[in-house]
Amino acid sequence: MKRSEYQRAQERAAAILKSGGIVIAEPEAEHIEVADFGLGDLEVQGLQLITYVNSDRYCAKELVLFPKQTCPEHLHPPIDHEPGKMETFRCRLGKVLLYVEGEAASDIQAALPPGSEAYYTVFHEVELHPGEQYTIAPGVKHWFQAGEEGAVVSEFSSTSRDEYDQFTDPRIARLPVIEEDGQDRT
């Protein structure tokens, strides 16, 4: 991802947070993480996030999704005698379609990202609106997509170890590779 694209996504995410009345400090705005998951199509599969705290006991984040943007299917596996991350998603702005293991919806509302359909395997649909929340147990496959207006989700969880997340799409790289503008991607 080009540095200019990364910075535009940071600015856009900060503006969405502001529009939802979620105040962040300037240093937080400058450090919004932008994840394109190495797929090169941030608008379709990506996520913008701020980590407020991530200790050995708990974690709090804001997740910002652009309109119809999808965070790909993944799970949080057990690590070192810990059961894996348990997380509660609380919708703050917009609509979020969350998909978890369980009885599949007969007709899901989300649009599967073109070319990645085979990597989405769980379709129990949970629709979240502002003020609604859902807790995902450790080790449960899940993915989520914003509605037409985008969304903000507050995540409260046990310790986050994103580098250990297991994605169903083997092409995914969790940490972004940022190129300076004008450089070719290798």
UniProtKB/TrEMBL annotation:
GO terms for molecular function: isomerase activity. Keywords: Carbohydrate metabolism, Isomerase, Manganese, Metal-binding. Signal peptide: none annotated. Its EC number is 5.3.1.15. It catalyses: D-lyxose = D-xylulose. Coiled coil: none annotated. It is an enzyme of class 5 (isomerase). Its cofactor is Mn(2+). CDD domains: cupin_YdaE. It comes from the Bacteria. Belongs to the D-lyxose ketol-isomerase family. This is D-lyxose ketol-isomerase. It comes from Paenibacillus vulneris.
